[in-house]
Amino acid sequence: INHQSEARGALIVLEGLDRSGKTSQSGRLLSNLAGLGYPVESWRFPDRDTAVGKMISSYLSNKSQLDDHTIHLLFSANRWEKRSLMEAKLKSGTSLIVDRYSYSGVAFSAAKGLDIEWCKAPEVGLLAPDLVVYLDIPPEKAAERGGYGGERYEQLEFQKNVARHYKMLSDASWKMIDACLPMEDVEKQLKEMVLDCVTSCQKGKPISQLWL
Ligand code: 2DT
Fold first, then answer.
1. CA 28, chain centre distance (Å)
2. How far, in Å, from the CA of 167 to the mean position of ligand 1?
3. Within a 10 A sphere around the Cβ of 151, how many other Cβ atoms?
4. Whose CA is nearest to atom 4 of ligand 1?
5. Mind listing the pLDDT tens digit for each residue in 62-82?
6. Ligand 1 in reach of 148 Cβ (< 6 A)
């Protein structure tokens, strides 16, 4: 039997504050895994290319205003519209590195004052990540990094509030990396964690669903 052909891919999620290095590290991780011969893709949420994603993008750049509950549900809908493709990719053996997921969804909306349980509800039934890596950086340090881009949410006081909500959502299964370390060190730690996860998924760890 060729077990390799039946091995599924891993769902790896990177979370962290704005400017914590998620996007740079996603790119490095993608090259590292691809270089080792693993089928892998890099995704991000929000996916601004879909119709829902365009509404989200317009909201984030302050070109439109939406009620806090409404935008929350749009972010969730944006994950739901990718769910079946996500499952198909994983089952076909491709690992996905996802820059932000449901935890961003809950942390950012709850930081505005929405009830956490209400925020989690529309995420129930989405695919659960096999690994959540949190790039940990003090909000003040993140703010010092080349400034924010001027989108909604890119303000120190709000980011501090988001950080508090991430801490509330995190559990013992999350892997933390000190995002103040040099990029190469973060990259190396991330690669090791992810290789472990990819291996356990190949060995048959089942795909599960949110919210755990
Ligand atoms: P980027 O700067 O990473 O494109 O994120 N956000 C993101 C939410 O409020 N809810 C969500 O579900 C997701 C995925 C975080 C754009 C901003 O959107 C926020 C930052």
1. 15
2. 17
3. 13
4. 46
5. 999 999 999 999 999 999 999
6. no
129 lines ligand 1 (CB under 6 A): no
Contact yes or no for 116/60 (Cβ under 8 A) = no
Rounded Cα gap, residues 29 and 4, in angstroms: 22
CA of 186 to the centre of ligand 1 (A): 22
How many CA atoms, within 13 angstroms, populate the side-chain half-sphere of residue 24? 12
> To which residue do tokens 């995420």 refer?
123
ipTM for the whole predicted complex goes beyond 0.95:
yes
The reply to whether ligand 1 has any atom less than 6 angstroms from the CB of 16 is no
User: Which residues does residue 176 pair with via DSSP β-bridges, in sequence order?
Assistant: 134
pTM: 0.96
Counting atoms of ligand 1 from 1, which one is nearest the CA of 22? 3
56 CB neighbour count, 10 Å cutoff: 21
